[in-house]
Amino acid sequence: MGSFLYDVIRRRAPAADKVFLENHDGAAITYGGLDEGSARMAGALARLGVQPGDRVAAQVEKSPEALLLYLGCLRAGAVFLPLNTAYTPAEIEYFLTDAEPRVFVCDHAQKEKLAGVAAKAGVARVETLGVKRDGSLMEAFANAPAEFADARRGPGDLAAILYTSGTTGRSKGAMLSHDNLASNALTLVDYWRFTANDVLIHALPIYHTHGLFVATNTMLLAGGTILFQPKLDADVILKLMPRATTMMGVPTFYTRLLQHKGLTPEAAKHMRLFISGSAPLLAETHREWRARTGHSILERYGMTETNMNTSNPYDGDRVAGTVGFPLPGVSARIRDAETGADVPRGEIGVIEVKGPNVFSGYWRMPEKTAAEFRPDGFFITGDLGKIDERGYIHIVGRGKDLVISGGFNVYPKEVEDEIDALPGVIESAVIGVPHADFGEGVTAVVVRDKAAAIDEKTVIAALGARLAKFKQPKRVIFVDDLPRNAMGKVQKNILRETYAKLFSA
Ligand code: AMP
Known about the structure:
four-stranded parallel beta sheet, alpha/beta, nine-stranded mixed beta sheet
């Protein structure tokens, strides 16, 4: 036995000369090159003192070599710990102190700033990796042998720790095993019908589960080719589409591409599948995309802790505004958030999931872990949702985004859907803001068309006939854009802070 996940990758690898990755700068890596490169990376890590079970943390820009680092970690038996490139030195210090990696890899330009932080956290080695095959790690790589005897790692051993984005409280390290990753990628290859003929447009960051595991592992296990882009550039994506068959993106990819005149059925003719996840796709975006390209976007639902849980079907209806059915091998149920009791079909509760995809717990947080699992092994996702009569799962928001006004629960998505349907509205976010009488006052933050003749009064009046009084926004605020993170998620915590004094002024 070698390293479990890498063994699965190796067993399924196509011919050595098949291209695995084509970088935006024209550089390419074949499957043979990937095997050699990951061996060199594993060798380099071992020479730096990395032993099986050690963590290797990396805050680096997206590059093919960063993927080799991930695979090198698998082969060296190390636990890969990718960090968002947006994190500040103070945040990095927290992660390094918490995870105690043997090696920390960062960008050359950041080394000066981060070396002190790493020393404070007790990290023995700081290496650098740039986007031009440069940095001290690449020197070690060049000197390492082209073959490596993989460390023995079983299905239950840790492959990675990914810190959750932690918009409330401390960020937690989700411990993901070799089998969590392997089983989910194998399921997705089958469910989404990936084959060696697939060519994937990859414009997602690779410090997050979406770009790293969903996109990369799935393509590796399919034996397909990845077109690697540093970020979403609509012009470039449209140029790549005639050579690609599929794209995975966050909803903002789709809304941005829809703003491009070049998005036509002809441009998307060669594509077989567009997948969206990480944040809710507006039903409107789904419809527009279909009208413009002839393709129905396939929306799926997952999270850092669980990999992918549910997906709309490959064949059959891809229903806008839903995240489809539990994937094969995954069980999902809706429970009352407080009592934990089953709720009748169609009613809203917290989504709980169980399966080989679900992580084993939070790094060094046994109490937090215990609190988020039920005794029968289901993980409490914290997402609120319901299952409709056809079995499709609908997400209505994060539990922490629930608004409680005058003692009544208001599910933001229900109000957002009504506002989004009004003429002239582009999108909206509904939040709860402290209110002396109601506890929280429902507040809508709305992006409108520049030319639209709507204001606070017209929105409130239009909702009067559509929503119960307690769900209607007490205030409507217009903004140019909603604050979003790199994964396209609306940052409601920022909105709540911005408007915290709205009702007390
Ligand atoms: P992350 O751990 O960063 O991947 O974030 C996971 C969270 O993103 C989930 O718990 C959901 O709240 C949200 N999410 C992911 N996919 C979807 C989706 N298709 N629709 C709505 N929310 C989603």
